[in-house]
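Below is how a single chain appears once it has passed through the pipeline. First comes the sequence as given, then the structure the pipeline wrote out for it. We keep one example in the README because the format questions we get most often are answered faster by looking than by reading.
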Amino acid sequence: MNNLRREDLSLYQYIKDTALRPFVEKEEQAQLELMANISCTGTYVYETITDTLPNPIDRGRGWVYFDCTNIDTNGDCIYSVNSCVPEFITISGTDAQGNVCYGTPEQSNRVVVYDSNLVEITDVPYVVDYIDGRIIFPTGDVVPAYVDYYWNYVSVVDEWAAVEAADPPVVVIDMSQTDKTGYQLGGGKKVTRKVDIHVFAGNTAERNDIVETIHDSLYLKSAPVYKFLTGDVLDYDGTFYGRKSVSSKLTSLFNRTTLNNTGELHGGMSLNRNEVMLSDLNAYRSRVSFEVETYTRS
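Resulting structure:
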């Protein structure tokens, strides 16, 4: 994987999981319904029934897959965009490929499944599909009926074709022009990439809140460039990467190894040229423009 792809994925991860964490919502006791003709495969897949708008499983949304580390007296997350360090649990362990790493486990308190008597189901190793909002059980011995989950209110996408696939608010990350210059004698270069973050909201107040939150998360901040040794946080089917083959969440960590850790990068992505430009295309659209700078060793 080349650095452009790593930086694009890392920036997406930073915007979705760090910058926009204040826009996480909670759905309680949503009904679960067994999907037709699934049990013959040996697994039982239950989909969530909800009339919430915007839809929690719209493109770019989905359920939250990391725990909250700072909870208030009401059980709600306390978020801060003033910290350069993401508020994630990080522990020593292994990723899905068995690599020793310092990473983040799959959530343990963001998705809670209940039976028909609203008794929490804790003794069955079910798997969560965070993209499509589904619960996958290995057997039919225990029947889930309800689920509590946290979901991303703001849709975050990295391609224009996906804008119309979700109701607003939608954030589009558009990384475009690249400029590379030398910065030291011998090997090494400074890479500058121009980025536009387009915000599509449902009203003026919502637009301003999202734009201000994103701007605060970028101003005088830097974001890590992850190595992405074994892929993104989620697998192609929406499950936590590697969890279909292992039952323990502690042996399938999201590997937070960065290019800086491996000596391929000086620091992280520095976020510069912090300005906010309001677009004239429609009343509820804005654009945050900035530059990402990285310093590579070769």
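The mean pLDDT is 84.

See the next section for the split statistics.
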